[in-house]
Amino acid sequence: MRANSLWFRLIASSSVIAVVLLLSAAVLLNAIFVSALQRNFDLRLRAALDGVLANVELGADGKPQVQNQLADTRFSLPLSGWYWQISNGGDGSKILSSNSLLEQQLTVPADALKVRDKDGVAGFSLPDPQGKNLRAIEQDVKLFNDGKSYAFLVSGNFDELKSEITSFQTTLLAVLAALGLALLAGLLFQVRFTLQPLADMQHQLNDIRSGRGEFLSDNFPRELQPVADELNLVMQSNLEIVERSRMQVGNLAHALKTPISVLTNEASDSKSPLAAKVSEQIVVMREQVNLYLDRARRAVRAQNIGAATEVEPVLQALGRTLQRIHGDRQISITVDALPGLRFRGEKQDLEEMVGNLMDNACKWAKSRVLVRTYVVPATPDEARAWLSVAVDDDGVGIPEEKRQTALQRGRRLDETKPGSGLGMSIISETASIYGGDLTLADADLGGLRASLRLPMVN
Amino acid sequence: MRILVVEDDKDLNRQLVESLQQNGYVVDKAFDGEEGHFLGDTEPYDAIVLDLGLPVIDGVSVLSQWRRAGKKTPVLILTARDRWSDKVAGFDAGADDYVTKPFNMEEILARLRALVRRAAGHASNEMTCGPVTLDSANAKVVVSGKAVKLTSLEFRLLSYLMMHSGKVVSRTELVEHLYDQDFDRDSNTIEVFVGRLRKKLGVDVLQTIRGMGYTMSETGHAG
């Protein structure tokens, strides 16, 4: 999928948003879980602290001493991470501690005691000498009437909760990942569903271009329908312009050709030098009129997109007509066309090209003209399909070395036979407008085979 | 031979009428489709020259109306429309020939001759009836190897009779095909012309069938 597409934009932006939101959720949930665990842990430490407080008393030496060890054996296990410690409120020197702490001393990190709850208890984390993560609470208590303040500290091994946290985090990540994937799948569906009308529009436009449709349908979503309507209007007005121009070209043809006919006849009735001059100039005018009318027609046609023409009826009609035109020459015209074959282009162009080829063939044929159509198999590197119209006659044909000349502009190999003025070159030019071509070869009947290759509607 | 010219351009219409008249045809003219259709529908023409871009009713409609009504008169379409679709439409409507403007008058004359000839079932420009040979392309009549000079009207009379040789042609039919619509139709003049023609030909190929008309046949060329 190309980077510059609506699809990509929607998927990429939604994915980024989803990932950011999911990650934030992961961080937040983790923090909530950990702090809940911590609160719970602190409550247990608080119970232990209360136990220590209840068992301490001032000894004979004026120093505090513990009457009974705490019931929790973890405070007796060396370096278990579960410690209690009583130190001097002033210099922080250790006075008494649990057996588990051995000879070591816990040092409260700086700033840890700044925040205390309403009971004067501060909670904090600290590493023990072995590198374990400890959670500790500390309370300054004036226990005895000696006016001294003692710092009571109880810590627990927070690493014991590590596996619980890890398991929570694993589950959390798995759930969030699954959620992310589900979101992505939903997103893909949503984007596809939302963009479907656009794809439909593209499809219909393709159909119009290739001649399978005429207009966009009127059931697009509310936001797209105005665009479709506008496009339809543009195509409609394009059709009208083409139609109008075509009519005007026809009118112009009529308007010019009748006066030329009148002049021709008038001049040919007279033997004066003026008449001779007029006759000579009329020939020039006639050629110019034909040339520019032809151009005008082609310019008009070039504007029209998406025309499609059924080939067989056109060939049959031309065959019928040419049979009448060459009626007194006893030429048998056979049209053997595949039904349903459609040319991607204007009916008029097909008629002019094939009509002139068939007319030529009839003029040169001794007795037979054969018109056939083929589907040209598409080559792998070409997406377009082609059709071919072959016009064969049993006349003298054109020798191979002269065929190229016959296709050149303004050349007529034989001026003795009357022509409608459109030589092979014009047919070849028209075919090339459609990307096709005209080729000359030997016909099985003995004369010339003229093959038109033209784009086909699939 | 009587021809109808339907062409809306006044100059071209005049030129066609003049050329046809010079070549021995009797010509009626119309300047729009309605008038053309009416004349073609009511008068017996041997051929019709029809423009396509006509006022009131266009040429193709006029032609289709004639053909639907069963008219078999040969029609030559003379038009500026040179597209194959126009030709197809013209022939499908029942045209017998199609000439595009600009054109040569000679071409029109030759094609009209061929149309009239074909309509009567003759394959070539030359028609023979016994010792009489008529060349419609060159307006020549030869009897037993010798050229015979005929007036324009006599030539028209003879070619019409030869075109329909073997059939009985009534005086009325002859009047209709040899004179234009404004002519005072007195069929007695025909009798006079037939008499003169017989004398000039000098062979007995033209018989009178009492009460019906005339016929040409090669059977009785005794004298």
Structure notes:
The complex is a heterodimer of chains A (458) and B (223). Helix content of chain A is 49%, strand content 17%. Chain A is an alpha+beta fold and 458 residues long. In chain A, α3 runs antiparallel to α4, α5 runs parallel beside α6 and α6 (347-364) packs antiparallel against α8 (424-433). Chain A is rod-shaped. The model of chain A is unreliable at 415-421 (pLDDT under 50). The two termini of chain B are 28 Å apart. Helices cover 41% and strands 22% of the residues of chain B. Chain B has two domains: 2-119, 3-Layer(aba) Sandwich (Rossmann fold); 126-216, Arc Repressor Mutant, subunit A, CATH 1.10.10. Chain B is α/β, with parallel strands linked by helices and 223 residues long. Chain B has helices at residues 10-22, 33-42, 59-68, 84-93, 105-119, 152-163, 171-178, 188-201; strands at 2-6, 26-30, 47-50, 75-79, 97-100, 126-129, 132-135, 140-143, 146-148, 168-169, 206-209, 213-216. The A-B interface holds A 250, 253-254, 256-262, 264-266, 268, 282, 286, 317-318, 320-321, 324-325, 327-328, 347-348, 351-352, 355-356, 420 and B 9, 11-12, 15, 19, 53, 79-85, 87-88, 91-92, 95-98, 100-105, 114, 118, 123.
Characteristics:
heterodimer; A: about 450 residues; alpha+beta; Heat Shock Protein 90; about 50% helix; rod-shaped; B: about 220 residues; alpha/beta; Rossmann fold; Arc Repressor Mutant, subunit A; five-stranded parallel beta sheet; four-stranded antiparallel beta sheet; 12 strands; globular
